[in-house]
Design brief:
By secondary structure, the chain is α/β, with parallel strands linked by helices. It has one domain: Rossmann fold (3-Layer(aba) Sandwich). The protein is built from 6 helices and 5 strands. Strands 3-2-1-4-5 form a 5-stranded parallel β-sheet, with helices on both faces. Helix 4 packs parallel to helix 6. The longest helix is centred in the C-terminal third of the chain and has 22 residues.
Length: 143
């Protein structure tokens, strides 16, 4: 199975990539990530790149540095087609969405549209899984 994980160097994406790589060594997992969290959130570059480096140990994971807003990057990641897209790329930070609303919208809306459109061009049978973030639930969902 060919699986594309967008935002694959992030917390959720990297765990998805690792899971499917370990699940079946014949799975081909393609990880697409821009590694821009250090710029957006001020995280240390080493912290942002930790998952990216960790995934390099898997022979069945291909890492592609690219941006979901760039159709050519997405097209390169999808290649001849994928069976599944796990879309975890996005800008989840509420403070950042207020500080840089146009970039936030561009990443989340246009980025998602690019991934959907490039997937559709290759195969109408691609399974598309959209992952939200914990931000939609608020701080404490148990209260």
């Amino acid at each position: 199975m060919r699986i594309l994980v967008t935002g694959g160097a992030g917390l959720v994406g990297s765990h998805c990539a690792e899971y499917f790589a370990r699940l079946n060594p014949r799975n081909k997992v393609i990880v697409l990530d821009s590694l821009m969290r250090s710029r957006l959130f001020g995280y240390p570059k080493a912290s942002v790149e930790y998952n990216w480096r960790f995934l390099s140990q898997f022979k069945n994971i291909e890492r592609i540095k690219g941006d979901v807003r760039n159709a050519k990057d997405v097209s390169r990641a999808i290649g001849r087609g994928v069976d599944v897209v796990i879309h975890t790329a996005g800008q989840p930070g509420v403070p950042s969405s207020v500080r840089i609303p146009k970039e936030d919208f561009s990443i989340n809306a246009f980025g998602t549209l690019n991934v959907l459109e490039e997937s559709r061009k290759r195969s109408i049978n691609t399974i598309f899984i959209y992952c939200s973030t914990n931000k939609v639930y608020g701080e404490n969902i148990d209260n």
